[in-house]
Design brief:
The protein is of the alpha/beta class. It contains 14 helices and 8 strands. The longest helix is centred in the C-terminal third of the chain and has 87 residues.
Length: about 425
């Protein structure tokens, strides 16, 4: 089984100069930013990278540059999809030659693919160009109209493409995503492709790996969703997912991720230039509006977070007070039970002492009677009274509290009895 991707892969933008030519210079700094934000690699020349608007030569040079600056274990996956399948195969061969980690391809926007068999053949020919690399099908039907059932595609492609690894799934059907993930006990690597729904996919047991577009400028939060989910912090994961959706709400007002998202990179300090025609680039005024909306939404989310934090703290104090009161109640019960147990034991001890004295008294009576004393009732009061009883001067002896030890009492009785025997 092929290695499955763990963590998030970024779909980078392609940097351009003002004249529309590719600018390779920022890619090194770009890589460092992504690594710092916790991304595990890049999926270059895809939709975010305007791959279909690049020449084959530009695409190969971009792949080479990313490979030059990529640190160890930073995966470089090259999107090689094209309207010309021969170009796609050539790009696949090049990716394998330069040591890329893997390749991928979306269905072409023209001609539109409308049958599973057509898609399998398309992928089959491209994947054969790089047989040593894992191949991912990039499912994004909103871009190319290839609204085909992906579970049926997996079943059809399973035994035909030896290096088929899985699907980059960028579509709204969480049900279909999960069904593909479960197929053959998770045989294929289902890379989550919608940043707005990472959390629900995690809840279903998937999304161990993913490829995102808003990870370019929101990578820390998106990586954070997975981290806090693994740590069991569901409420924090919800907050990060909601924040990530708010980021998407902003870019949707400014022509989406490819245009609006790319300009956010400028706002965070990495200017990657504009977009190629026919994309309509943002104006300076739109950039200001987007910045203001982004800051406004962030302020609202911070305020909501602080309010929720205050509520949680108050609830925490309340819960703590309740727990303290309950603990004190339980402690009082335990103390009362302990005191009751102590008194029971003391009473049992006293009863045993009385029984012991009674036994000793009976022995004393026996000894005295054997000595010839006329006794109807005997109660020990003191050793002196005991002596008087033995001398026949007393017929009532009361048990004293100051006689030390039952053994001593019995011994005293024995000694007096012995003395009487010698008379």
């Amino acid at each position: 089984m092929m290695e499955k991707i763990i963590g998030l892969i970024n779909a980078p933008f392609t940097p351009f100069y003002e004249n529309g030519e590719v600018n390779y210079e920022p890619i090194e700094a770009y890589t460092k930013l992504l690594v710092k934000n916790g991304l595990k690699g890049v999926f270059i020349n895809g939709s975010s990278g305007e791959g279909y608007m690049l020449t084959d030569e530009e695409r190969m040079k971009l792949a080479e540059r990313w490979m030059e600056v990529a640190p160890k274990d930073f995966k470089v996956i090259v999107h090689v999809g094209s309207c010309c399948v021969k170009s796609s195969r050539m790009l696949a061969e090049h990716a394998q030659k330069i040591g890329a980690w893997g390749i991928g391809a979306m269905a072409p926007p023209f001609p539109k693919i409308g049958r599973i068999e057509e898609l399998v053949k398309y992928c089959e020919e491209i994947a054969a160009g790089a047989p040593e690399l894992p191949f991912y099908y990039y499912h994004i039907p909103a871009f190319n109209g290839a609204f085909l059932p992906m579970l049926a595609f997996l079943k059809a492609v399973e035994n035909r493409i030896p290096n088929f690894a899985g699907i980059k799934y960028t579509f709204e059907s969480l049900y279909e995503y999960n069904q593909c993930r479960l197929y053959k006990d998770g045989k294929f690597d289902m890379l989550h492709g919608q940043d707005e729904t990472i959390l629900p996919c995690l809840a279903m047991g998937g999304a161990q790996g993913g490829i995102g577009g808003t990870t370019n400028y929101n990578g820390i939060n998106l990586v954070g969703i997975i981290d806090v989910w693994k740590a069991g912090e569901l409420e924090k994961a919800r907050e990060l997912q909601n924040f990530s959706q708010e980021v998407i709400n902003v870019i949707c007002h400014f022509r989406g991720n490819i245009v609006g998202g790319k300009r956010i990179m400028k706002l965070i300090g990495l200017d990657l230039g504009g977009n190629r025609t026919p994309f309509q680039n943002m104006t300076v005024e739109e950039e200001k509006q987007m910045k203001a909306e982004r800051e406004r939404r962030e302020a609202i989310l911070r305020a909501e977070g602080e309010k929720k934090s205050t509520i949680l703290v108050a609830e925490g104090h309340k819960e703590s007070a309740i727990l303290d009161a309950e603990a004190e109640k339980q402690a009082a019960i335990l103390r009362a039970e302990a005191e009751k147990e102590k008194k029971i034991k003391e009473a049992e001890g006293q009863a045993e002492a009385i029984r012991a004295v009674q036994r000793a008294t009976a022995d004393g009576i026996r000894y005295i009677k054997e000595a010839g004393a006329d006794q109807a009732v005997l109660q020990l009061k003191s050793l002196e009274a005991f002596q008087a009883a033995a001398d026949g001067k007393a017929n009532k002896i009361i048990i004293p509290s100051d006689i030390q030890g039952i053994a001593g009492l019995v011994k005293s009785i024995s000694e007096i009895a012995a003395k009487e025997d010698t008379k």
